Amino acid sequence: MTKIKMCGLRRTEDIEFANMVKPDYIGYVFAEKSKRYITPEKAAELTKLLDADIVPVGVFVDETMENVIAAVKMGAVKMVQLHGSESEDFVSELKKRGIPVIKAFQVGSAEDIAAAEGSCADMVLLDSGKGSGQTFDWSLIGSIRRPYLLAGGITAENAAQAIRQLRPYGVDASSCLETNGFKDFGKMSAFAQAVREAEEQT
């Protein structure tokens, strides 16, 4: 079953929506430059309201090791997603501490796919950019041998095509789930339904 990740949640109602739609993962953005930024402290409060079957993920961009670990320790998240220029050593150190890591790769060439293939992260995410909402050239993915999350412009309209064509481990959406910059229950529900129906048809 293709996993569903919904990123950029930041309000109590976002969590209520997620509890109804039941994605496998939700993401909080801890990068201060993002319009979806929330503090780890706020995320910890929201996680207390989150269905126990949904895994909360913290999205970081070139954050310090101490701050990443602190977010996990306070109960804000159970996994971390690294979206910056974090090294393999940084990923490895987090894993040694028992923290599962998703490493994001911006895909613009076959070399980016090779880097994702070789990453020591528990999971990799293939993206078009930092929240650009645009798809990348899926043909670049080629014959990647490890499971991956597909991000970048995945919507209710193209999720089925992505799943049939690429068979990703999971799909990750954010901006397509929003109306006027905030999560929209109808759009979250439609996205989840599209993914689940595509799964049934493949």
How does this structure look, described?
With 202 residues, this protein is of the alpha/beta class. 35% of the residues lie in helices and 21% in strands. The chain is built from seven helices and ten strands. The strands form two sheets. An eight-stranded parallel barrel has the order 1-2-3-4-5-6-7-8, surrounded by six helices. The protein has a two-stranded antiparallel sheet with strand order 9-10. The model has no long low-confidence stretch (mean pLDDT 94).
**What's the total number of strands?**
10
Let me know the average pLDDT: 94
> Residue ranges: pLDDT <50 for 5 or more in a row?
none
Distance between the termini: 10 Å
Morphology: globular
Q: In percent, how helical is the residue content?
A: 25-40%
Question: Within the largest sheet, what's the order of strands?
Answer: 1-2-3-4-5-6-7-8
> Rg to the nearest angstrom?
16 Å
What is the helix tally? 7
Biggest pleated-sheet summary: 8 strands, parallel, barrel
Keywords:
202 residues; alpha/beta; eight-stranded parallel barrel; two-stranded antiparallel ribbon; 7 helices; 35% helix; 21% strand
List the helices and strands and how they pair.
Elements: E1 3-7, H1 12-21, E2 25-29, H2 40-47, E3 55-60, H3 65-73, E4 79-82, H4 88-96, E5 101-106, H5 110-118, E6 123-127, E7 148-150, H6 159-166, E8 170-173, E9 178-179, E10 182-183, H7 185-201
Helix pairs in contact: 1-7, 6-7
